[in-house]
C-alpha cells in the first residue's frame, strides 16, 4: 500500500506547538507533503525538522517567513529537486520534488492571488509555467516506468461542489473562471486525476480549508483547495481518500486539514 497525505501547516513552528507533531506521529502515511512551512531548518527543533522514521526534504523561500514546502517520506529519495526550472519561482518555496524507485512525489503551494493586483498576475505566471512542467513530468515518469503524485495547496476550488459559497466567490481569486479552466486542463490535458473526486464524485466538499474568521469552521463553510493529483496508473489503484477534519474548532493546528489518499500499490 502507498498512503500520501498533504497539508498546509500555516507555519510549521506554530503548528508543531498545537498538534502537528502528534498528528505526524500517529500518521499511517508513507509520504507527507507540507506547504506554507515558512520557517528555516535552523529555526525548528530536530524532532520537527527531522522526525524519527522519516527522510525530510525542504524548500524554503528566499523571501524569509513566507511559503516554503517540504516532503517527508519513509523511504529515502534517490533524488530531490527544488523548483521546476523557472527562474522566477525556483527560489519561492513553492515546489519540491522527490524521486524514488517507482514513484515521483511532489509538494506544491500555488500563490493565493488577489484580483486586480500583482499577486494575481504572479499566480497566473506560476500556473502557466507549472502546467508545462506537469505535462513534461508525466512524460518523463512514463518513460521511466514511474507513477506521479503531486499533492498540495492549489489555492483553486475547481467546481461549484468545491466551496460552500460558490455564488458569492465567482469574481474572487481561487474561483475565477480562468483558474477553474486551468485546473480542468491539469486533468483533461496534462492527464492527472483528482483522486478524491474520482472516489467521491458527488459534493459538496469535503472541504479542506476554513477561514479562522467568524463561524466558517463550525458551519463547514469551507473550500476544497488541497488536492492529491496522481498519474492515471496510480489513481486507478486508489482505494480511499479522506479529509482529516479536526473534531472541533479548538483542536485545529492549522486553518487547513490534512488530505490523505491510499493506493493499493506496492511502491517499494
UniProtKB/TrEMBL annotation:
Q: Which EC numbers characterise this protein's activity in its record?
A: 3.1.11.2
GO MF annotations, alphabetized: double-stranded DNA 3'-5' DNA exonuclease activity
List required co-factors.
Answer: Mg(2+)
Keywords on this record? Hydrolase, Magnesium, Metal-binding
Q: What class of enzyme is it?
A: hydrolase
Record's InterPro entries? AP_endonuc_1, Endo/exonu/phosph_ase_sf, Endo/exonuclease/phosphatase, ExoIII-like
**Chain ranges of the Endonuclease/exonuclease/phosphatase domain:** 6-256
Q: Which NCBIfam families match?
A: exoDNase_III, xth
Q: Which family does it belong to?
A: Belongs to the DNA repair enzymes AP/ExoA family.
> What is this protein's record name?
Exodeoxyribonuclease III
Amino acid at each position: 500500500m502507498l498512503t500520501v497525505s498533504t497539508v498546509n501547516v500555516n507555519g510549521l513552528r506554530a503548528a508543531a506547538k498545537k498538534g502537528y507533531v502528534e498528528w505526524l506521529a500517529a500518521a499511517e502515511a508513507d509520504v507527507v507533503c507540507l506547504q506554507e512551512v515558512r520557517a528555516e531548518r535552523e529555526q525548528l527543533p530536530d524532532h520537527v525538522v527531522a522526525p524519527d522514521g522519516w527522510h525530510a526534504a525542504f524548500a524554503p523561500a528566499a523571501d524569509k517567513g513566507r511559503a516554503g514546502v517540504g516532503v517527508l517520506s519513509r523511504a529515502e529519495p534517490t533524488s530531490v529537486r527544488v523548483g521546476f526550472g523557472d527562474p522566477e519561482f525556483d527560489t519561492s518555496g513553492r515546489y519540491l520534488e522527490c524521486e524514488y524507485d517507482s514513484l515521483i512525489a511532489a509538494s506544491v503551494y500555488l500563490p493565493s492571488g488577489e484580483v486586480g493586483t500583482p499577486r494575481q498576475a504572479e499566480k497566473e505566471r506560476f500556473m502557466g509555467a507549472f502546467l508545462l512542467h506537469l505535462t513534461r513530468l508525466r512524460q518523463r515518469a512514463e518513460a521511466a516506468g514511474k507513477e506521479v503524485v503531486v499533492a498540495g495547496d492549489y489555492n483553486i476550488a475547481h467546481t461549484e461542489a468545491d466551496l460552500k459559497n460558490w455564488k458569492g466567490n465567482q469574481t474572487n481569486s481561487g474561483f475565477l473562471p480562468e483558474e477553474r479552466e486551468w485546473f480542468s486542463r491539469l486533468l483533461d490535458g496534462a492527464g492527472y486525476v483528482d483522486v478524491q473526486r474520482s472516489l467521491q464524485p458527488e459534493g459538496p466538499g469535503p472541504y479542506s480549508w476554513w477561514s479562522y474568521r467568524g463561524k466558517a469552521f463550525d458551519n463547514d463553510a469551507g473550500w476544497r483547495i488541497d488536492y492529491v493529483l496522481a498519474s492515471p496508473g496510480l489513481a486507478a489503484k486508489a482505494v480511499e481518500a479522506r479529509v482529516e477534519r479536526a473534531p472541533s474548532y479548538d483542536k485545529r493546528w492549522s486553518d487547513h486539514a490534512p488530505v490523505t489518499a491510499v493506493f493499493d500499490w506496492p511502491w517499494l
